[in-house]
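User: structure tokens for this one?
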Amino acid sequence: MLKTLAVANYRSINQLVVPLGRLNPITGPNGSGKSNLYRALRLLAETAQGGVINALAREGGLDSTFWAGPEKISRRMQNGEVPIQGGPRQNLMRLRLGFAGEDFSYAISLGLPEPSSSAFSLDPEIKRECIWAGAVYRPASLLVDRAGPMVRARDGRDWDVLAQHTPSFDSLFDQVGNLRTSPEVLHLREQIRGWRFYDHFRTDAQAPARQPQLGTRTPVLHHDGRDLAAALQTIIEIGEPESLHAAISDAFPGAHLKIGAIPGGQFALQFYQQGLLRPLSAAELSDGTLRYLLLIAALLTPRPPTMMVLNEPETSLHPDLLPALARLIVQVSERCQVWVVSHASRLIAALERAAECNPIMLEKVLGQTGIVDQGMLDEPAWSWPG
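Assistant:
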């Protein structure tokens, strides 16, 4: 489980250190930075997938994603005594992402390359990556250190060089990591690859979830929901069918579902509702009902992730479904860490009743995203590697 997330110089986030728990509802007014915090987490996940540089390029490059305000906002600026203004930069321009886990912590720093004749001169470079033991960085706790092209790992009192020519666009997770020389890299790589994101399932008439699909065991629902019927059948056979049927009954009293087989090996969803003489197919379901079934399939996966992130799961759902969704999310948070990014007050209020809930309310002050009522003493201990 992650205990802390740290972000610096990313869009509206100048400096933010977020305390985390098992269940983390993220909310705040429109424009407060919820989407930026979510995107920062997705960008951090790309480090273990080999796509962090491409992900930045899709966002418009480092210049587009870098914090656009002054390097520091003085107290006089905060009080309105002087206008917001910049000045000569004291530190190098770096986008920084990091987290503290229960065993190991990780941080990455990205910046622009030195001027060159390369056609890729605007591609950001990975300047520094570090893995250390414990939650707070100290030089003595550093286990793996990547500075420029060199990656080295601690070997007793000395350092063992693991790679000397690491490409500037590759994370250390792409280049090193085995049980003998760097088990920390292997451990964190698999942990980050286990993060699972669900963001706006399609429910239009042509949505993949509405079409019959070839049936094969599906312990993890695809991010677009194309294998919904197979995922539900997998839960019925090797997962927790009682939890599945209870979740459906909680949201739709008197309803139940079956998965039918179509010639050719395809699966089709059959949704039985009280008062109807025949089941409804996925093509006939309302957007809200289909989305809810997709959320059930995602949350009740027989292969729980290390962390599950739901971005605005309330989209298309009737407000009366939100308490049932909250109960399902709370149940799942007992098995894995859960993030819920939402602006649905009824959903957030229902989640906040859970004992393990760690609500995070964002606000934007002078263009900077911050956490409401988070003072200096409330912020988790965090230090970026020098």
